[in-house]
Design goal:
Length: 228
């Protein structure tokens, strides 16, 4: 058994070293659809979650598996969050949540060559770690009660009505589609659906999801060795 594992490991390493590994950079916009849910009875009359625009950017590599398939890991800084409007009988509450993450999608992509480039499609798991955040709260009461709070990723629940303490680790599924020109420039759409409720409180929940639109550039790493 050990010999079999060793042979497989050596085969993978040999294939990686002999493959033309590409590296790249990317940047764009993330349209976040964070979903807040409340468990308290009688809270809102109308409760809506609206998308929030944030920054997205990072590094990626592409390791060939076969002629048309490749492993594409990424490491990105990404801003997630949500905008929430809660309508009560006599006033409105508005909450804007900004969450900053380091996220690592691990996709397997299928490349479809065309005349001057490649279409590519992929999917895989995505892990993320929260590093900072902010919650801006306003309402229509006169005088208005406006608050700005820093969000801590410490996982400590306090049953507050605000989004203020969250779990740092998040996990989800990632789907991508894009087009890469022969010169290395590419455009990509990327949708991530996170499965975990990252709010530790019993009275409410929070789940991340979002669509990012980006442009990037792929170049060949200097340490790679081309196939003969």
């Amino acid at each position: 058994m050990k010999k079999t594992i060793l042979v497989i490991a050596l085969a993978v390493i040999t294939n990686t070293l002999s493959a033309q590994v590409s590296f790249g950079v990317q940047a764009g916009t993330n349209i976040a659809f964070g979903k807040i849910t409340y468990d308290n009875t009688g809270l809102p009359t109308v409760f809506t979650n609206d998308p929030k625009i944030g920054f997205f950017g990072g590094l990626l590599s592409e390791i060939p598996i076969s002629r048309k398939f490749a492993f594409r890991p990424e490491i990105n800084f990404i801003q997630k969050g949500s905008k929430t409007n809660t309508t009560f009988s006599i006033y409105n509450d508005n909450t804007k949540v900004t969450l900053n993450y380091i996220e690592m999608p691990l996709n397997v992509v299928y490349k479809l060559p065309v005349r001057k480039g490649d279409f590519f499609f992929g999917l895989g798991p995505s892990v993320a770690f929260g590093i900072s955040g902010k919650n801006v709260y306003t309402n229509s009461v006169t005088p208005a009660n406006n608050e700005t709070n820093n969000i801590k990723f410490d996982g400590k629940g306090n049953n507050s009505n605000y989004i203020d303490n969250l779990k740092a680790f998040d996990f989800g599924a990632n789907v991508i589609a894009g087009y890469k020109f022969g010169v290395g420039v590419f455009f990509k759409l990327d949708y991530t659906y996170n499965f975990l409720d990252i709010d530790p409180d019993d009275t409410k929940g929070y789940k991340n999801r979002g669509l990012n639109i980006c442009i990037g550039y792929m170049f060949v790493g200097s340490a790679s060795v081309k196939k003969k």
